[in-house]
């Protein structure tokens, strides 16, 4: 009887030890799992469905599927709270913004909250193509942000040159070509960037050449801002692999350390 009790006691102790070890391993594993960061890809819902069936935010988000450690959320001007209710905006590490025809529809209150998140709390902001005229981007830059040389949608070819190859946004990229796009002509009414990541050379349909910067970065308060010029809605630019790689690189950079 005594031997039986001892055997059962030892067996129980062994189970308890094993359970304790398993629980400790579970706690340790949970502690090792880092919470995901969040990027919101926002657009205004005006891109032609013949080119972007689910709009540009979905096209960009689709290219981020392999971005490890990130939750990717799409949002639209047409959603409740213009796509950015306070709880969602406050949880974002980075916002990617595309707008074109409805810049003025974005509410001042929302613009102010975005600017606060960038300047005071370090959220990253990425504006692409015609988002240079978006209200959040202009508020962050503090300038008109126009390309004063003009805008011509003639399907020009764009050669994108990697100018700052060692910058994280350029990681894994070599010079590449966007077959057709809209031309934005210098000068750009924005503060002098800290760095030009990508330069560009347009080839007009008549063969004329024209330079224009394509990828620029700034620090605004505590936040990082990246502007990327390619992305006209008439062409499937956001499905191009090099363009998607730019965003996969830019989002972790914009989030900061």
What does this protein look like?
The protein has 257 residues and is of the alpha/beta class. The protein has a single domain, classed as Rossmann fold. The protein has 6 helices and 10 strands, in the order H-E-H-E-H-E-H-E-H-E-E-E-E-E-E-H. Strands 1, 2, 3, 4, 5, 6, 7, 8, 9 and 10 form a 10-stranded mixed sheet that branches. A hairpin with a 2-residue loop joins strand 9 and strand 10. The N terminus is likely disordered.
- Low-confidence residue ranges: 1-19, 21-28
- Span from first to last CA? 64 Å
CATH superfamily: Class I glutamine amidotransferase (GATase) domain
Mean pLDDT: 91
**Oligomeric state of the chains?**
single chain
Query: How much helical structure, as a percent, in the residues?
Result: 25-40%
Biggest sheet character: 10 strands, mixed
Topology (elements, then pairings):
Layout: H1 2-32, E1 37-43, H2 55-62, E2 70-76, H3 86-91, E3 94-98, H4 108-121, E4 124-128, H5 135-141, E5 150-162, E6 176-185, E7 195-203, E8 209-211, E9 215-220, E10 223-228, H6 241-254
Parallel strand pairs: 1-2, 1-3, 3-4, 4-10
Antiparallel strand pairs: 5-6, 5-7, 7-8, 7-9, 9-10
């Amino acid at each position: 009887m005594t031997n039986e009790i001892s055997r059962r006691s030892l067996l129980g102790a062994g189970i308890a030890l094993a359970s304790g070890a398993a629980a400790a391993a579970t706690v340790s594993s949970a502690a090792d799992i880092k919470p995901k960061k969040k990027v919101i890809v926002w657009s205004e819902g005006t891109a032609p469905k013949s080119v972007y069936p689910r709009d540009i935010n979905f096209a960009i988000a689709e290219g981020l599927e392999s971005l490890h450690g990130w939750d990717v959320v799409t949002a639209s001007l047409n959603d409740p709270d213009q796509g950015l209710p306070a709880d969602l905006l406050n949880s974002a590490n980075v916002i990617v913004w595309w707008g074109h025809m409805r810049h003025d529809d974005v509410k001042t209150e929302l613009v102010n909250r975005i600017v606060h998140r960038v300047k005071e709390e370090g959220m990253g902001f990425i504006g692409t193509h015609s988002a240079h005229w978006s209200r959040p981007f202009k508020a962050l830059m503090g300038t008109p942000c126009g390309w004063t040389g003009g805008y011509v949608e003639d399907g020009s070819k764009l050669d994108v040159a990697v100018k700052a190859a060692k910058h994280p946004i350029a990681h894994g990229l070599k010079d590449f070509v966007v077959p057709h796009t809209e031309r934005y002509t210098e000068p750009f009414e924005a503060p002098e960037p800290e760095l030009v990541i990508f330069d560009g050379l347009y080839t007009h349909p008549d063969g004329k050449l024209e330079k224009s910067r394509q990828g620029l970065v700034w620090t605004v308060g505590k936040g990082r801002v990246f502007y990327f010029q390619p992305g006209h809605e008439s062409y499937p630019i956001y499905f191009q692999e090099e363009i998607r790689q730019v965003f996969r690189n830019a989002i972790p950079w914009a989030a900061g350390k």
